[in-house]
Write a structure and sequence with these properties.
Keywords: Membrane, Transmembrane, Transmembrane helix
Structural class: mainly alpha
Helix content: over 70%
Number of strands: 0
Order of helices and strands: HHHH
Distance between the termini: 60 Å
Radius of gyration: 21 Å
């Protein structure tokens, strides 16, 4: 085992530990204030609803070159990817509008 492999596995371990603490510690802290859990649940529910709207709008068309190896893309997989892309685009636009609005609001004040 080279040092590259050791450092890669150490990096993977640090990512997993960091992700664990990034998820668990805010949950532990939010038990002091249950209203913050409600706001988080509403945000997650809004993103899930947005995804299902984007999923229902996206197409399930698959080009013949993507049906064969190495892709093996199915119509369901194509529709899922399309839904994820549309969701990402919508969230990007919402973030961009929020940034512009915040900057204009600060400039006016």
């Amino acid at each position: 085992m080279d040092t590259y492999d050791i450092f890669l596995y150490a990096g993977y371990l640090l990512i997993v530990v960091g992700a664990f603490f990034a998820i668990v510690m805010p949950l532990i802290k939010s038990f002091d204030n249950p209203k913050s859990l409600l706001k988080t649940a509403i945000g997650i529910a809004a993103i899930v609803v947005l995804f299902f709207i984007a999923y229902s709008v996206s197409s399930n068309e698959v080009l013949p070159k993507f049906e064969a190896d190495p892709f093996n893309l199915t119509p369901e997989g194509s529709q899922f990817v399309g839904g994820m892309l549309i969701t990402t685009y919508i969230l990007f636009l919402i973030a961009l509008v929020g940034i512009v609005f915040t900057e204009l609001n600060k400039a006016i004040k």
